[in-house]
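EI: anyone free to look at a 96-residue chain?
SC: sure, send it
EI:
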Amino acid sequence: MGVVWTVTLADGVADEAGTAAEYATRGQIAVYASTPASRPVLEYHDRGDLQPEFNRLSKLGDWDAMVGLVDDELFDLIAIRGTPSECGTELAHRTS
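SC: here you go
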């Protein structure tokens, strides 16, 4: 059985809109990561130890700290960024 998580695409260029889309995607990753059900996904990427911290911060309502836990490495493990064509190619690669 594989590990599955929701796919989110944020189509934007490296400008204000792109920065906002990336922040929103980091926020979505953080919210998902705060749930105990997400731990297998994080463990798959050797980041399972972060799940209790995401959960703790969510109970405090510290959303900025949660987003801060989504470093570039975790972001790139979970999300895909690029042009629509690049995202499609990477998504196909990851699911094959």
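EI: The longest helix spans residues 16-33.
SC: 👍
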